[in-house]
Amino acid sequence: MNAPPPEDPVGPVNPEAPVVAVTGASGAVGGRVARRLARAGVPVRLLGRDPARLPELPGAVAAPPARYGDGEAMRRALAGAHTLFLVSAHESPYRVREHTTAVDAAVAVGVERIVYVSFLGAAPDATFTFARDHWHTEAYIRTADVRHTFLRDSLYLAGLPAMTGSDGVLRGPGGDGRVAAVAHEDIADAATAVLLADAERVDTRHDGVTYDLTGPEAFTLAEAAEELSRVTGRTVTYVPETREEAYASRAQYGAEDWEVTGWVTSYEAIATGEMATVSDAVPDLTGHPATDLATYLREHPDSYRHLLKQS
Questions:
Q1: Are the C-beta atoms of residues 187 and 208 closer than 8 Å to each other?
Q2: What tens digit of pLDDT does each residue of 150-201 get?
Q3: H helices present in 144-280, as ranges
Q4: Are 227 and 294 in contact (CB under 8 A)?
Q5: Burial 276-306 (b: 16+ CB within 10 A, else e)
Q6: What radius of gyration do the chain's Cα atoms show?
């Protein structure tokens, strides 16, 4: 297994710097961003669904427990923060309402800036149903009296091995469409660059800007399967499904209809070309190239470990 890269040394915390409230601070994106901000000496307010899972970081303070949909609790958690890094809530039929409640709470206590983690191709009529939630959240933030930046992430690179079954089959109605999947690390680096813009002085260059955060190339799911075959040493195949087949193959999980629809339409958005966008935002914001699939798999062998257990 590859050793994790060494972390940058932690700098002294600047008590005069604006406080950044990081939601989802125990998660894959929020946790990475919180660590990067702490290393930069930024005072961080950590928000998470389970306070016991929040990381211990220099200059970071755990906020009182708060869920997005609880306006009063969010106001207490965000009081005194300058910037809110808003990681989208877990998918649910009420996610937009939860987001708007969190935004209202932030504005009510004087938060000056919101950096929101959205999704590539967010639109009211996006094929991917969850991307519609992101568009409605963006639209609400635009109407609020707050500076804002939107980070529209592509599909996660980590999702490709995760979407592949232990039988070595990646299946879904993605057709021959392409996806420029992106690494969590690159999202965190880009988000940190945007958040640090206000660390010492008001810097408005990111205000009102939407960044598409993608990998360096768009590939088909068949090409992803080929890359997984190379790294695992076994045959991994992509099986394109029809919509009916996709719903049928996912019925075994017993998920609610809205959730299954989200799963299926994520593939259909690849088929329609809505995930094929390749952006230079990651290298432009971070100063380093975006991670490609082969590099990601080489550096994250745990992501495909389930594919090594052949029956």
A1: no
A2: 999 999 999 999 999 999 999 999 999 999 999 999 999 999 999 999 987 8
A3: 159-162, 184-195, 221-232, 243-250, 257-271
A4: yes
A5: bbebebbeebbeeebbbbeebbeebeebbee
A6: 20
CA–CA dist 249, 245 (Å, integer): 6
Average pLDDT, the chain: 94
Report the candidate in 96, 95, 55, 101 with the shortest Cα–Cα distance to residue 78.
Answer: 101
Q: Which of 132, 291, 127, 134 lies closest to 210, judged by CA?
A: 134
CA distance 22 to 205: 21
User: Which residues have a Cβ under 8 Å from the Cβ of 140 and sit 6 or more positions away?
Assistant: 96, 99, 100, 103
Can you tell me the mean pLDDT for 98-126? 98
Contacts of 165 (CB under 8 A, 6+ apart): 171
Q: What is the DSSP track for 153-188?
A: E--BTTHHHHTB-TTSEEEES-TT-EE--B-HHHHH
279 pLDDT tier (thresholds 50, 70, 90): very high
What pLDDT band is residue 202 in, cutting at 50, 70 and 90?
A: confident
What is the Cβ-side half-sphere exposure of residue 25, based on CA atoms within 13 angstroms? 32
Using DSSP, state whether 22 is helix, strand or coil: strand
CA-to-CA distance for 54 and 21, rounded, in angstroms? 13
- Coil, helix or strand for 191? helix
- Max distance between CA atoms of the chain, in angstroms, equals 58
Backbone angles phi, psi at 155, to 5 degrees: -55, 145
Whole-prediction pTM: 0.93
Burial class (CB in 10 A: 0-12, 13-18, 19+), 67: middle
